[in-house]
Design a protein that fits this description.
Structural class: mainly beta
Oligomer: single chain
Strand order of the largest sheet: 1-2-3-5
Largest sheet: 4 strands, antiparallel
Mean pLDDT: 76
Helix content: under 10%
Number of helices: 2
Number of strands: 42
Strand content: 35-45%
Low-confidence stretches: 1-154, 158-174
């Protein structure tokens, strides 16, 4: 159902049916006049209803008008936020869906005397009805027979008011410098953004589990000799949001602790596979959607899953049975895990709480409340006893708690607002402040790190009341928000992934940038880090560029080079 507004100037309808921003129907661009020689156009995405009295039944529609003078063709807008209109129910209701199109100058135009003219662009024009002069300028619908359809060429060149210079469109990827691909392997089996990854190295073969916005999960095997990818068999109906292996926890008795791979989806299903053959073994159901997965550290046969409905589910995989449903969170459970000794289940939520659960009874043993700001991420196994847990928050804080004593150890202020005495609370909230990644150092038990959308990595010393040891940020670059971080298993080195697609390696002792890995052309969504005794590391990342990349890093050589450079005058 398509409608245009009374006193319209022209209505464009794209002649192609290609999908634009994910919508398959043709795009409608509506221009209309209000009063005497003013152009107006819708600017806000909203739902509007039209009733029998020819008036707007919703005040949510926003319209804007050009200046009083009649615009010439050179003054026509080159960009327009348009809306596609579609009926919702029996009462005429139109959902305005935001897209972006480019209008070509002189496709439509107006003479200086106020009469509309056709510039040979195949556009039909409607004339102003003299009977409407002096009437209320509120837009109203007209009969469907008045709709004008013309072809719209999205690929036509755009002039710049007679200027021969070609202007750059912000965000145009064609103008960006090519990205140097430093990855050892690039996997492009997904057809949409890849949001989840898990990796495990065994016998020089890297196993990778991935899930993406194309509703698919894959098992990949990468070695120096070959690379193989298998599409996992279950047909999900929504994004595969999380994946996990249990091989790090299994015992030698595979009958008691079988090797498993798990894929969770926003469609509410968790599917268990054989990590060697990719054969489907079980399908677990219960959550409304699945946000994250974590295997129990003692044997890996119990699986913990967090849901957007505020619940946490615990399954026994060999028995294909739900053991507990932990209920208490009031909003989505954004992160969770088992404690290192396996005695407790931990969950962080968008409701601003961190909860400790008893797996055997399902009881909530303790609640840490950190205010209204949602918790975004979690890290465990901190401190000399492994009982510290760290959570990041949307308000720019990171909180460290001891799950044994059930006390808050410290609150770390990651984001610092600009020093401005006039800055009020509302203005402060406009700054990028959320903490998106946290982690504890395995080699320095009292050290931890936080990374945020402000692009900074901060190293904290818990033995000194949470003192900030280092603030790490790339020089001479715009803010590059951090999405993930990971500590080296034996060295004071931190790897960070960012929205630019870059992976950076930092020395936590002095805050220096040691190395930068490139390859991704868009945001990195997930990262898994594997470190080895020979001084090398493997970094596996996934991104919005639909790819999975594997990077080999010779950490020892990079550190040696850093020492040499520091000794140079």
């Amino acid at each position: 159902m398509v409608a245009i507004l009374k006193d319209y100037s022209v209505c464009f309808k794209s002649s192609c049916n290609s999908e634009i921003e994910g919508f398959g129907w043709p795009v409608i661009v509506v221009l209309f006049k209000v009063g005497n020689n003013k152009l107006a156009w819708t600017t806000e995405s909203t739902t509007v209803r039209y009733n029998e009295t020819n008036a707007w039944a919703s005040s949510g529609v926003s319209v804007q008008s050009s200046p009083e003078s009649q615009p010439q063709s050179s003054e026509l807008f080159e960009r327009l936020d348009a809306r596609s209109l579609a009926t919702n129910d029996s009462t005429p209701s139109y959902q305005l869906v935001k897209i972006t199109l480019t209008l070509i100058r002189d496709n439509i135009g107006m003479e200086a005397n106020g009469e509309e003219r056709n510039n040979g662009s195949a556009a039909d024009t409607g004339n102003q009805d003299p009977a409407n002069e002096g009437e209320d300028e509120t837009p109203a619908f007209v009969d469907m027979s008045d709709v004008v359809e013309v072809p719209f060429d999205n690929d036509a060149p755009m002039d710049e008011d007679g200027d021969d210079e070609t202007s750059e469109i912000p965000g145009d990827s064609t103008s960006a410098a090519p990205v140097v691909d430093m990855s050892k392997a690039k996997i492009e089996t997904h057809t949409d953004s890849v949001y989840a990854v898990a990796a495990f190295m065994e016998n020089d073969v890297l196993s990778i589990l991935s899930g993406g916005g194309d509703d698919r999960a894959f098992l990949h095997k990468v070695s120096s000799a070959s690379s193989e990818s298998k599409s996992l068999s279950y047909n999900h109906t929504d994004t595969v949001s999380c994946v996990a292996f249990n091989m790090a926890y299994v015992s030698s008795d595979l009958t008691k602790t079988p090797r498993l791979a798990a894929a969770g989806s926003y469609d509410g299903t968790i599917v268990i596979y054989d990590p060697e053959t990719a054969e489907q073994k079980f399908k677990l159901e219960g959550p409304s959607d699945v946000e994250w997965l974590c295997f129990h550290p003692k044997g890996g046969s119990v699986l913990l899953a967090g849901s957007g409905d505020g619940t946490v589910w615990m399954f026994h995989i060999p028995l294909n049975r739900c053991l507990q449903v932990f209920v208490g969170h009031e909003q989505a459970v954004s992160a969770g895990c088992f404690s290192p000794d396996g005695k407790w289940a931990l969950s962080a939520s968008a409701d601003g709480t961190l909860r400790i659960w008893a797996p055997k009874t399902g009881m909530n043993k303790h609640v840490f409340r950190f205010g209204e700001a949602g918790l975004t991420c979690m890290a465990s196994n901190g401190g000399s006893d492994g009982m510290l847990v760290m959570v990041g928050s949307e308000d720019g804080n990171a909180h460290v708690c001891h799950i044994g004593t059930k006390k808050v150890v410290t609150t770390l202020r990651h984001f610092e607002a600009p020093l401005n005495a006039d800055t009020d609370e509302d203005e402060e909230m406009e700054h990028p402040m959320s903490v998106e990644a946290v982690g504890f150092s395995p080699s320095q038990p009292s050290w931890c790190a936080s990374g945020g959308v402000d692009g900074r990595l901060k190293i904290w010393d818990l033995s000194k009341d949470g003192q900030c040891r280092q603030t790490c940020a790339p020089d001479n670059e715009d803010t590059d928000s951090i999405t993930r971080l990971g500590w080296h298993s034996t060295l004071p080195i931190v790897f960070t992934a960012a929205i630019s697609g870059k992976i950076r390696m930092w020395d936590a002792r002095n805050g220096k940038l040691l190395h930068t890995l490139t390859g991704h052309s868009d945001t990195i969504n997930e990262m898994d880090l594997k470190c080895f005794e020979n001084g090398t590391a493997v970094v596996v990342t996934t991104g919005d560029d639909k790819s999975i990349r594997v990077f080999d890093v010779n950490v020892n050589e990079i550190l040696k080079q850093a020492v040499v450079e520091a000794q140079q005058p």
